[in-house]
Amino acid sequence: MRGYGQFCPVAKAAEVFAERWTPLVIREMIAGSRRFSDIQRGVPLMSSSLLSRRLRDLEQAGIIERVQRNGPRSTEYVLTEAGRELQPVVELLGVWGQRWATHNLARDDLDASLLLWDIRRGLDGDRMPEGRTVIHFAFSDGPAPKRNWWLVANDGDVDLCLTDPGHDVDLHVHSDVRTLVDVWMGHAAIGDALRAGDIALDGPRTLVRAFPQWLRLNVFAEHARPA
Asked: What confidence tens digit (pLDDT) does each residue in 46-77 have?
């Protein structure tokens, strides 16, 4: 039996919300992802077929709805009133996880693709130079196909590329995945990582100095872990 067989509101809500991957799909939509491909970038280990099933389940549950913006091939997924009411639930779950569940991340938890997708959303365009800025991230660890990434920022629009976009690079960022995750999650200060050499920046001095100001950390970074 898929459900819990209980009339309790906690049980009925859990049947919808606590399905594997579902909280992360809702997290991505709260963060602003609407297209299938964008949602999938936030859950890179989730298969396309499973994501399609979860979106159908959420639609049937009244959590999301499909909207055709520019014809049948331009489907977007948006949260309904019921879906939007889950935002504080997701946020509280994230705060709890930041404080109590991220102390000892396993190697398998350190996903460079999710990290860069999250950083892409957190770049402060108001602090970045006008026009196009290309940032190359080179990770010293991880599988070879995922060691090099490029963020291309252009007046507020930011694209994440796994292959060289062909533009001149303005700033190179060298690190291992764990160090950048720790900085992004607020577990370590970027200044300390730079002084220790765990993160190295290569580019014009003005951009090197400005880079830490471009990063608006993960939304849960301000919630300190207990001592």
From this structure: 999 999 999 999 999 999 999 987 766 789 99
Domains, the chain, ordered by start: 9-100 (1.10.10.10), 107-214 (3.30.1050.10)
Which letter, b or e, does each residue of 3-36 get, where b requires 16 or more Cβ atoms within 10 Å of its Cβ? eeeeeeeeeeeeebbebeebbbbbbbbbeebbee
- Tell me the three state secondary structure of residue 162: coil
pLDDT in tens, 116-147: 999 999 899 889 999 999 999 999 997 888 89
Q: How many CB atoms lie within 10 A of CB 135?
A: 25
- The 3-state DSSP class for residue 181 equals helix
* Length, in residues, of the chain: 227
Q: Which residues contact 126 (CB under 8 A, 6 or more apart)?
A: none
Instruction: Please report the pLDDT score of residue 71 as a whole number.
Output: 67
Predicted TM-score (pTM) of this structure: 0.90
Report the C-alpha gap between 60 and 53 in whole angstroms: 11
**What's the order of all strands across the beta sheet hosting 148-154?**
157-161, 148-154, 132-139, 171-175, 200-202
**Contact indicator for 136, 169 with CB cutoff of 8 Å:** yes
